[in-house]
């Protein structure tokens, strides 16, 4: 009979520890003394999403906190696909904990979001490194239903992450709602991302708020990492994101970072400016003259073009009359 009061006392103690953890912004498992959390640095690193962009991660205190709410804003609704791409990168980071690459992701679209910006595209997610078969898409009828689903999802450890996508500044969503979402995510130790399209910045309980805007893609480079690396003129390389740290309780805020996503290594990187006088400057490859033999047409040998076939791959492609050409310096 004495075990029942003891069990009740233990449950009360665990509840109090979780409340203290929420107030002090500690991981709930660490507050309850559960295995898997310790005070060493390795345990602290496991609680962060390390993007791979060193300066960006450093300003975030090592990375994005996993156990909690993170806001990602895009100023224009037309850039909703940009935030989805950035989100897909975060969810497929190679340095993330195993559960983030294994468990399903619940993506909640508040009313009007999917009809305005469209649903996340499967092939696009796959191209960024995120397996679309892990995605669970939900579109509740009302904002209240969307918030209920987000809170219930955030409190479970069966999901890798929960994404709540909203449009504009809704009347039924404010500081109190973000406080509840933050507490749920801290308790479960799972990340909850709030994607906001064309919304004005307002009070929020999220420790981190990022503003993502379009940025030029990185140049397309062939044979990268070798002495023969060259940029491809007009080629489109890894996508770019201009990410501004608008709010940051773990470090400084206000700086904009130009990040690119490497889908092969599944990490972000910041393009570094090249030093002047470097031995091999890829930027100069685009305008560098091509070395080779220069030929000159004899005077009056120019063809009018009337009888030249325009086919580029057929057997009737006109062949140059090499015997009328002579090497020269012209």
Describe this structure in words.
- The protein is of the alpha/beta class and 330 residues long.
- It has a domain of 223 residues: P-loop containing nucleotide triphosphate hydrolases (Rossmann fold, 3-Layer(aba) Sandwich).
- The protein is built from ten helices and 15 strands.
- It has a nine-stranded mixed β-sheet with strand order 5-4-6-7-3-8-11-12-13, sandwiched between helices. A two-stranded antiparallel sheet has the order 1-2.
Number of helices: 10
Largest sheet: 9 strands, mixed
State the CATH topology of the domain at 48-270. Answer: Rossmann fold
Globally, the shape reads: globular
Number of strands: 15
End-to-end distance: 104 Å
What is the element string, with H for helices and E for strands? Answer: HHHEHEEHHEHHEHEHEEEEEEEEE
The overall pLDDT, averaged over residues, is 77
Helices and strands: which structural class?
alpha/beta
Strand composition percent? 15-25%
Detail the poorly predicted runs: 26-42, 273-295, 301-330
Q: Residue share in helices? A: 25-40%
Describe the strand arrangement of the main beta sheet, using strand numbers: 5-4-6-7-3-8-11-12-13
CATH class of the domain at 48-270: Alpha Beta
List its salient traits.
10 helices, 330 residues, single chain, 15 strands, globular, disordered C terminus, alpha/beta
List the helices and strands and how they pair.
Blueprint: H1 3-24, H2 28-32, H3 41-46, E1 48-49, H4 54-59, E2 64-65, E3 68-74, H5 80-91, H6 98-102, E4 105-109, H7 113-117, H8 122-127, E5 135-138, H9 143-154, E6 161-167, H10 175-188, E7 191-197, E8 208-215, E9 219-222, E10 230-236, E11 240-248, E12 256-262, E13 267-270, E14 295-296, E15 326-327
Parallel strand pairs: 3-7, 3-8, 4-5, 4-6, 6-7
Antiparallel strand pairs: 1-2, 8-11, 9-10, 11-12, 12-13, 14-15
Helix pairs in contact: 9-10
């Amino acid at each position: 009979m004495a075990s029942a009061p003891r069990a009740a006392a233990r449950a009360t103690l665990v509840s109090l520890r979780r409340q203290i953890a929420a107030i002090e912004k500690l991981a709930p498992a660490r507050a309850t003394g559960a295995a898997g959390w310790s005070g060493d640095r390795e345990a602290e690193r496991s609680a962060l999403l390390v993007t791979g962009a060193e300066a960006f991660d450093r300003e975030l205190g090592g990375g994005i906190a996993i156990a909690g709410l993170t806001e990602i804003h895009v100023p224009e609704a037309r850039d909703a696909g940009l935030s989805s791409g950035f989100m897909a990168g975060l969810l497929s980071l190679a340095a993330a904990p195993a559960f983030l690459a294994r468990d399903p992701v619940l993506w909640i679209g508040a009313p009007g979001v999917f009809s305005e910006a469209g649903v996340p595209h499967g092939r696009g997610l796959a191209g960024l490194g995120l397996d679309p078969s892990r995605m669970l898409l939900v579109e509740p009828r009302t904002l209240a239903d969307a918030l209920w689903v987000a809170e219930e999802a955030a409190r479970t450890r069966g999901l890798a992450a929960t994404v709540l996508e909203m449009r504009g500044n809704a009347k039924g969503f404010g500081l109190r709602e973000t406080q509840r979402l933050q507490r749920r995510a801290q308790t479960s130790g799972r990340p909850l991302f709030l994607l906001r399209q064309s919304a004005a910045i307002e009070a929020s309980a999220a420790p981190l708020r990022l503003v993502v805007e379009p940025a030029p893609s990185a140049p397309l480079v062939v044979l990268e990492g070798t002495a023969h690396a060259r940029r491809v003129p007009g080629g489109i390389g890894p996508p770019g994101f201009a990410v501004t740290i608008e709010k940051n309780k773990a470090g400084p805020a206000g700086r904009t970072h130009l990040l690119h996503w490497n889908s092969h290594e599944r990490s972000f990187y910041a393009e570094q400016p090249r030093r002047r006088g470097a031995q091999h400057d890829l930027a100069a490859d685009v305008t560098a003259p091509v070395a080779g033999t220069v030929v000159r047409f004899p005077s009056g040998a120019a063809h009018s073009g009337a009888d030249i076939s325009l086919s580029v791959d057929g057997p009737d492609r006109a062949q140059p009359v090499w015997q009328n050409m002579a090497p020269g310096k012209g």
